[in-house]
Design the sequence.
């Protein structure tokens, strides 16, 4: 559960698409409600797809799907994670994904097996299935956007098996 001394921010989620006639319309505009509190962070699912290329005429709200860390096989996932000040996640983990990571607010540290990378607001990272962990060593919250794309290899003698947190 989240740290009671820290209040997580609501995330406004706007989904735009098409009506039956093909006209561009707002489908949803409100607080994203599919979130969990692993440790001292809030993980909010924004959207996911089951395949790429994705069917953008499918009006099912995938922001409400029950998903763990990786996307569906062949799909994608977009989530925002807000880390409380001082939050640590000591377990390294790996997914068979290519991740696009954007530090939106604050500062977040990524631990690799033999090094660390500090990301500040505006920094972007492309992560290629690495074994990693995250921590916020600052006194301010950090907000990080993650887009995970299902990737290969599903098995490699060079890599540890995927490990979910």
Sequence:
């Amino acid at each position: 559960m989240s740290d009671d001394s820290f209040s997580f921010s609501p995330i406004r989620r706007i989904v735009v698409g098409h009506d039956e006639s093909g006209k561009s319309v707002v489908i949803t505009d409100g607080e994203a409600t599919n979130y969990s509190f692993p440790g001292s962070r809030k993980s909010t699912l924004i959207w996911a797809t089951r395949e790429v290329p994705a069917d953008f005429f499918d009006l099912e709200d995938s922001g409400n799907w029950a998903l763990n860390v990786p996307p569906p096989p062949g799909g994608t996932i977009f989530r925002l994670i807000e880390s409380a000040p001082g939050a640590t996640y000591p377990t390294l983990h790996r997914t068979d994904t290519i991740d696009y990571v954007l530090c939106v607010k604050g500062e977040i540290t990524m631990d690799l097996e033999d090094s660390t990378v500090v990301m500040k607001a505006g920094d972007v990272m492309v992560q290629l299935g690495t074994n990693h962990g995250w921590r916020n060593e600052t006194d301010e919250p950090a907000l990080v956007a993650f887009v995970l794309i299902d990737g290969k290899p599903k098995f490699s003698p060079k890599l540890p098996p995927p490990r979910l947190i």
Summary: Residues 12-150 form a domain with the Jelly Rolls fold (CATH 2.60.120.10). The radius of gyration is 17 Å. The mean pLDDT is 89. The chain has one domain: 12-150.
